Fold this sequence. Notes:
The chain is an alpha/beta fold. It contains twelve helices and eight strands.
Amino acid sequence: MRRRIRxxxxxxxxxxxxxxxxxxxxxxxxxIKPKPQEGDYVLHDFRFRSGETLPTLRMHYLTFxxxxxxxxxxxxxxxxxxxGTSRSSDQFLAAQFADVLFDPGExxxxxxxxxxxxxxIGHGKSSKPSDGMRMHFPQYDYDDMVLSQYELLTEGxxxxxxxxxxxxxxxxxxxxxxxxxxxxxxxxxxxxACLPVPIAGRxxxxxxxxxxxxxxxxxxxxxxxxxxxxxxxxIWLDFMLIASGSPLQMQKNYTAPEAAxxxxxxxxxxxxxxxxANDLLYEVxxxxxxxxxxxxxxxxxxxxxxxxxxxxxxxxxxxxAEQEIKKVKRGQxxxxxxxxxxxxxxxxxxxxxxxxxxxQLLQESQR
Length: 367
């Protein structure tokens, strides 16, 4: 595992003071024993829903632990964890996630579970436009991403069953697709921070603004740029900064105007160089065809669906989650109130806030 140790005294102190808005993009990397195994699996002649194909599609992944099989050869302890838009498997190496869930005695203790965390198409170290194809890369969507996850598990890792799927944000939406397309493949699902309906309203407006910012930037040049366009990526980061923090904590931590200004400048400076405009355009637009709402009734496993009251991207006042979960035969929805422990949309990576619901789900879905 590639370590990114940036823990000067100043950075560590800042992380403690401003954890409310750091939400996992500049957090301390957990010290995990054993270390995750890192690998790549190549899918050959992968066909996308658009009709396009790639001769080789690389899927990068991390794993913890080892698979356990029953007498019939069925894997009994595999857990698939799915990341959010513009993130990667590294998201789950943050201390506030990994130390809370993966340590000995914790709900997903890596000595007991086989944890699989892929970089999805277009993200991390998996195949993406910035590898060289730019805007000639196939126009993937969420269904393509779930299919590639399925092939990674079954063909690449030999996993024929999952104990659990846990997905955050985009991964949350992927989990709904999994439950509908492979209803017998898992024992339980835990979607965190999304809605099981088409992305519309504020969420789609944000995505459209980001895509406009990329496409309308003269420097983008239809994807054939020599200098990285800044407008679209900065719009994305601006919205993610707002989405990443609880209003309660932002007001508490940045009472002085100059402190708020400084945080914004530092936030953008630290992250802008890690975004590629073409990759981001594909990532944001991949949600265009997402709509699991009509098939929620086909999901047969226990579902623990959790959202957060201070989530800017999925505001609770819409009432959508409460309505849609009624379609799920064994579904339960929990809305976690805003507090000094929540972190807006990105509470999905602060596992201490919702760990108890994961423990409940694992107990209820035991066979």
